[in-house]
Design brief:
This protein has about 300 residues and is an alpha/beta fold. It is built from ten helices and ten strands. The protein has helices at about 1-25, 35-45, 70-80, 95-100, 140-155, 160-185, 205-210, 225-240, 255-265, 285-300; strands at about 30-35, 50-55, 80-85, 105-110, 115-120, 125-130, 195, 210-215, 245-250, 265-270. It is globular. The structure holds zinc ion (ZN). Zinc ion (ZN) binds near residues 64, 133 and 199.
Length: about 300
């Protein structure tokens, strides 16, 4: 009788220890690093309470020309999983991963989307550039979410149900968002659906929702536009009667001020292309960013 009782107590102790272990695992969150703020927000939505997300390039930062810091190397070294856009967006990432000695898997969230190829003119002829800005199409952002979910499950299989449920709930919100985008674009007269932005960040948006974007800078911000590029844009704006030019949160406004001044086009506002705003700003999440941008388009272009 006594022996049996002891056995039961021991069983209870094992059970308690098991619970404590589960509690500990739950408390120590999965450490995810995202290369830039827009991606960080998507990871946060899928990861929920199980994941702690840090961004490398923060709000209003230019991810194309970023210089990583020693702090970034430390973040990578401590990470369980790293999320990058890919498509050539983070040219600085490979070196940073090597320098930081990071062991975490690097998940490329654009895997599976159809990349947009752009022919760009350069000093010594043409080159084909891959456009990295796929997040500007909500349909592509939905693929990002699926890749993020799978990436998190791979490093934290115990969270599979949570990540699946979080992703499903967020995908419903993205469906609603995409619907809002379509309604907003439909409200703009077809012959006014053309916009000038500083760099070519809205190609996926334009292709998905039917709007023309023209930019003096290419799909990266690495090279400044030449005087010839700017002159060509000015002629195009006048000839095609493009109603508005837009600033971007990550770019110097002076070039667009000059173009607006020389063409008589109005400044339509500031678009969030490659980075979110600070928390509390007008584009603190991916969904707020997309809503902010379509509000700017309709404000400037609807009759
Ligand atoms: Zn960009």
């Amino acid at each position: 009788m006594i022996a049996r009782r002891r056995f039961l107590l021991a069983g209870a102790a094992v059970l308690a220890a098991g619970q404590a272990k589960a509690e500990n695992t739950r408390q120590s969150k999965i450490k995810a690093v995202a290369s830039f703020s827009i991606l960080g927000d998507l990871v946060r939505n899928v990861g929920g309470d199980r994941v702690e997300v840090e961004n490398l390039v923060g709000p209003n930062g230019d991810v194309h020309v970023y210089s990583p810091t020693p702090g970034d190397a430390r973040k990578l070294a401590a990470a369980n999983v790293v999320f990058v856009n890919g498509l050539g967006l983070e040219g600085w990432m490979t070196r940073l991963v090597v320098a930081s000695n990071a062991k975490a898997p690097v998940v490329v969230v654009s895997k599976g989307i159809t990349p947009r190829r752009m022919e760009e003119e350069e000093k010594f002829g043409h080159r084909i550039a891959i456009d990295p800005h796929a997040w500007q199409s909500v349909a592509d952002a939905k693929s990002y979410v699926a890749n993020i979910r799978d990436g998190l499950i791979a490093v934290d299989p115990a969270g599979k149900a949570t990540y699946g449920a979080n992703a499903d709930a967020y995908l419903v919100k993205l469906d609603e968002l995409e619907n809002e985008v379509r309604v907003a674009i439909a409200s703009i007269p077809a012959d006014r659906r053309k916009i000038i932005t500083t760099h070519d960040a809205f190609g996926y948006f334009g292709a998905a929702y039917g709007m023309a974007f023209i930019a003096p800078e290419g799909v990266s911000t690495e090279a400044e536009p030449s005087a010839k590029d700017v002159a060509r844009i000015i002629i195009q704006i006048k000839k095609q009667k493009i109603p508005a030019v837009f600033l971007e949160n990550t770019s110097d406004p002076r070039l667009m001020d000059q173009i607006a001044h020389e063409t008589g086009a109005s400044i339509g506002g500031t678009l969030y292309s490659d980075a979110l705003s600070e928390p509390g700003g007008p584009a603190a999440t991916y969904i707020e960013m997309m809503r902010h941008n379509i509000r700017q388009f309709t404000k400037a272009l609807v009759g």
